[in-house]
Amino acid sequence: MAGIAEVAARAGVSKATASRALSGTGYVSDATRERVRRAADDLGYVPSAGAVSLATGRTQTIGVVMPYVNRWFFAEVLEGIQRSLLERGLDLTLYDAKPGTEGRARIFDDFLARKRFDGLIAVGLEPVNQELERLTRIGRPIVSVVGDGEETSVVAVDDDYAARRATEHLIGLGHRDIAFVGGAPESHWAHVDQQRLAGYQRAMNDAGLADRVRHVHSPVTMPGGYAASVDLLGDARRRPSAIVGVCDEVAIGTIIAARRLGISVPSALSVVGIDDHEFADMFALTTLQQVPREQGTAAVELLLAEIADPPRARTRLRIPSRLIVRNSTAPMDGIDPGAPLL
Amino acid sequence: MAGIAEVAARAGVSKATASRALSGTGYVSDATRERVRRAADDLGYVPSAGAVSLATGRTQTIGVVMPYVNRWFFAEVLEGIQRSLLERGLDLTLYDAKPGTEGRARIFDDFLARKRFDGLIAVGLEPVNQELERLTRIGRPIVSVVGDGEETSVVAVDDDYAARRATEHLIGLGHRDIAFVGGAPESHWAHVDQQRLAGYQRAMNDAGLADRVRHVHSPVTMPGGYAASVDLLGDARRRPSAIVGVCDEVAIGTIIAARRLGISVPSALSVVGIDDHEFADMFALTTLQQVPREQGTAAVELLLAEIADPPRARTRLRIPSRLIVRNSTAPMDGIDPGAPLL
DNA sequence: TTGAAAGCGGTACCAA
DNA sequence: TTGGTACCGCTTTCAA
């Protein structure tokens, strides 16, 4: 309840001086600063956020928009962002913008327009045109995590590369019958998934396996990958010898399906994912690592820089990912496609 | 950028009238209101959050504190909260307070003290005494999700009951050798886990199986449950015929471990969890359902009521959970403890 | 180095 | 039913 006026009174100075002493802006003698500080402490003074933001135009808050919080990647990015902001004393306001919901429309139409933040981080948002327009007219710095937007700065891994590398790993092991699992039919499709499929296709083409390209649709979730894989692997005749999952969640779904069906991984089926999910180790999943937490912290740094020092050109931070070989992939040689059991 | 003054000017009224017309407070003729509305629309007027909160003392924001966002339960609760707030036009500020981190200390010492919210929802926080003290001195309504706190209103399932019911289900199937997996050594231990262990113990006692009580420690995660279960199930002689997981994540870890070891579920091992996790169906897990999303929305309703109409007595909302029988539990009769294979 | 005072953009009381 | 005006609590010129 104590305001800066009381702090000033107690320290025997004016509000102006108290403000300067506390915020570290402008000239204040060391002695006074000390006195003001002590007064503030004694009174348990906490500045009123509303007043500060009214006076300065800064909210000390960063907005985060994402379509999910309950998927590994998003939750990890969120944690990374949160940690960075915490260190800097900034608040985080979360907007959960699920595609195709009216809540999402409200977020773009109402919530974001309020500008209750100094900058915005958009994680895997994949805004459609109209949404993009809303975003840019906010007039606050924006950093995207994931995506290809020209409109904002971006932090992302090279999805095309990751999938290509994953596929090449399998090809290197002698596999030729390699399917790509995950992602919806091409029409309404996430950009990441497209990039990864493209990387897979490129690797297949480059190896002269263009005719073996096979894309199995599936929701990008563990249960989704599981269901799709039960289908795919059910018929021994159509079964590939290796699978690239669009992400670890799908790849793990595949492994679970394989175990369910008594197909041994990796001796009868190789599986590779992209992510290095927290469960990857438990399933001995070979994967292309990305560290979303670091993408989150990188996004914060980039955003704060753009807030402090207005937007020159857009920055594009492409993060490399490396192959982590565990035990879900094996050379083709040993495979007996007819052998279904563990 | 347009302020209420410009809206007022355009509508040919005073700021006061414009404010009343827009906020719906106080008398305004229909004609004027209409005129003001139109003016606001034309100008794309959006009130400044800082000014509003300075003037009214309300932030139109709800704070949410939780120790994790990357675990199923927490993410679901968060989504429930988010959805409710979205409908009401309220912002959500997230505080990620991981136990034992210095970030957590900062949250309690600095962030929460700023009161940048009209009310607070604490999800599975399990505050220690000093933290609790901080919480109460904020002087804003607080609702807890999970927990037993006397200090705040609470929304939670009856954990003791859920675990008891789960255990009774197994006992009813003829199992006697039932272990409880999950939770740290008693010392620094989450309240939920304690309650659930207690429920398990009670059911065992009531069935005259007190001497069979067995608590296997494990991190409350899927990989944690997996690792602990590999240990537990590895030695056929010590192997129980059934397991109660402290939550679905642990129970699923157990199932995965069992499959890994070639122990068939449910014919050689019954497993029951608590949650009805999104993966429960995929693993055919029998479980006691809770719907965290609904706990989130309930918490919002409770909190808003307390904000609107100050805190009479603390409310305690205990949500019942029901048994969902899938295919991870089976009668004891058929079990041949010696038979390890699928 | 410090203080007085004018905003920042609304809300709400009091008169008219 | 409407308008004038005093705040809300802090920052920031501008003078002293």
Give the tags.
about 350 residues; alpha/beta; Rossmann fold; 6-stranded mixed β-sheet; 12 helices; 12 strands; disordered C terminus; DNA-binding; HTH_LacI (chains A, B); Ribose operon repressor RbsR (chains A, B); DNA-binding (chains A, B); DNA-binding transcription factor activity (chains A, B); transcription (chains A, B)
The CATH top-level class label of the largest domain in chain A: Alpha Beta
Biggest interface, and residues per chain?
A-B, 51 and 51 residues
What is the CATH-assigned architecture of the largest domain in chain A? Answer: 3-Layer(aba) Sandwich
* Quaternary organisation of the protein chains: homodimer
Helix and strand succession of chain A?
A: HHHHEHEHEHEEHEHEHEHEEHEE
Shape of chain A: elongated
Point out poorly predicted stretches of chain A: 337-342
Please render the helix and strand layout as text.
Two copies of one chain form a homodimer.
Chain A lengths: L3 H8 L3 H9 L6 H14 L5 H8 L4 E6 L5 H17 L2 E6 L5 H10 L7 E5 L5 H9 L4 E4 L7 E5 L1 H14 L5 E4 L9 H16 L7 E3 L5 H13 L7 E4 L2 H13 L9 E6 L10 E4 L2 H17 L7 E4 L3 E2 L18
Parallel strand pairs in A: 1-2, 1-3, 3-4, 4-5, 5-11, 6-7, 6-8, 8-9, 9-10
Antiparallel strand pairs in A: 10-12
Helix pairs in contact in A: 1-2, 1-3, 2-3, 5-12, 8-9, 10-11
The first copy, chain A, binds a DNA duplex (16 and 16 nucleotides) through α2 and α4.
Protein name (chains A, B): Ribose operon repressor RbsR
Organism (chains A, B): Microbacterium dextranolyticum
Keywords (chains A, B): DNA-binding, Transcription, Transcription regulation
